[in-house]
Amino acid sequence: MEREEGESTTIGVSPAKSPAPIYSLTFLEVITASSVVLGFLVGLVCVYLTMPQSDYSFLKLPRNLEDLQILRDNLEIYTSDYTVQVLVGYCLVYIFMQTFMIPGTVFMSLLAGALFGVYKGMVLVVSTATAGASSCYFLSKLIGRPLILSIWPDKLVFFQDQVAKRKDRLLNYMLFLRLTPTLPNTFINVASPIVDVPYHIFFLATFIGLIPAAFVTVRAGIALGELQSLGDLYDFTSMATLFLIGVLSVTPTLINKKKT
């Protein structure tokens, strides 16, 4: 029975929690997201049409190292003669995955090292990862608020509070986040426009902050056959180095806070 108006609540019984609000996209927002997906698909179809007729059943997003090795072995055949098509296809897939938060970009980074070597692979991974993160940033600015409020409401409150505290040294803080596992990169991409992180700060922190981890992953891709698991990518030395760089990046913020 429902409690009558004016009747006191029984001690020791907590009131039922109100259901979490349900957020939905408007029709215009759905059209925007669908248009972006369609644009990527059209680009991939164009790449496919310029390739020679062959069996491309191996073309799928790798979900483990075995899938990645099969993809590498097959793409190596086309990389020398169809370099532009392979590059464009790679960039489109990587940016698409970053834009729509599809897991597995670590395999794409390994693939870049296996196909193009350390230095070319580094340029490719850092540029496509930054482009994909930027695409996610702007798409989230248009339609991301309902999504992030539904998935990460607590993280969003925390992130918004931290950004507000560090307005003067925001680049250092964003670099720290990119270099350490404090917050997931996917969350940072989606949440940054919602909490008013300026794009130029987001871009610089992303571009610079992704370089160390990209180097580790791309270099590992050269010896892809020797990897037993993704855990082999980040040994103690690599993790300690990344953490140290992250601490150094945020040090000016801590010093400035003590002075004030």
UniProtKB/TrEMBL annotation:
The chain crosses the membrane at residues 22-50, 87-112, 118-139, 201-224, 236-255. Keywords: Membrane, Transmembrane, Transmembrane helix. Residues 102-221 form the VTT domain. It comes from the Eukaryota. GO terms for cellular component: membrane. Pfam families: VTT_dom. It is found in: Membrane. It is a multi-pass membrane protein. The keyword Iron does not apply. GO terms for biological process: autophagosome assembly. Coiled coil: none annotated. InterPro entries: TM41A/B, VTT_dom. Its main location: membrane. The keyword Membrane applies. This is VTT domain-containing protein.
